[in-house]
Amino acid sequence: MSTSSDAMPGSLSMEQQFKLKVVKDQVKGLSLEQAQEYVVEVMRQMMVKDNLVKHLLKNA
Do 13 and 5 touch, CB atoms closer than 8 A? Predict the structure, then answer.
């Protein structure tokens, strides 16, 4: 059984694949405006995560 620690860095674990499918199903019902807001928020969260990782690596 593959865990997230066993997976290649660029691949998704089974749990992540499931969560992605759930999100994919949920966004099908969004309006264009809601989808645009969602994309912007996801990008913002990814940037925050990048900043946290950089900070942790810098201070490791």
Answer: no
Q: In this structure, are residues 39 and 30 in contact, taking their beta carbons and an 8 Å threshold?
A: no
Q: What is the pTM of this model?
A: 0.71
Stretch 20-32: mean pLDDT, rounded?
A: 96
Residues of the chain with pLDDT > 90, as a percent, come to: 82
Residues with Cβ within 8 Å of residue 7, at least 6 apart in sequence: 13
Buried b / exposed e over 22-45, threshold 16 CB at 10 Å, is eeeeeeeeeeeeeeeeeeeeeeee
